[in-house]
Amino acid sequence: MSADPARPPVRPVLDLVVLDCPDALALARFYGEVLGWELEEGSDRDWATLVPPGGGVAPERPDGRATLAFQRIDDWVPPTWPGGEHPQQFHLDFAVPVIADAEPAVLAAGATVHEHQPAESGGFKVYLDPAGHPFCLCRGMNS
């Protein structure tokens, strides 16, 4: 069956980015503190979802903003980066006006600075969340 050329294609809306981890609630609390987002009611150690300001599920977010969810994995092994036995599959980038101004809050929430910093220009800095996922603060958000 072919699509009707007169109808525009149905495009998916990115709803959730789900991170595997050893404790879903603990990692959701970390990212909730970093982003200023709230935990969804019913979140627990097995599955936790963050709610961005002004939105619940995808139809309630007409601007298409996705949210983060976390799922507990019994045999969790943190990714290794930049190489190693358990390579990073993906990472999160967070835009900030000035990296040095945003860094104290992510460190206070429980992040650590990664020993490997490949950005020669200083345009981004790599951190590890409490479960070991790499993420970056990236210079570029306008104030």
TrEMBL record:
It comes from Knoellia remsis. Residues 13-140 form the VOC domain. Keywords: Dioxygenase, Lyase, Oxidoreductase. This is Catechol 2,3-dioxygenase-like lactoylglutathione lyase family enzyme. The lineage of its organism: Bacteria, Bacillati, Actinomycetota, Actinomycetes, Micrococcales. The keyword Lyase applies. GO terms for molecular function: dioxygenase activity; lyase activity. It comes from the Bacteria. Gene3D superfamilies: 2,3-Dihydroxybiphenyl 1,2-Dioxygenase, domain 1 (3.10.180.10).
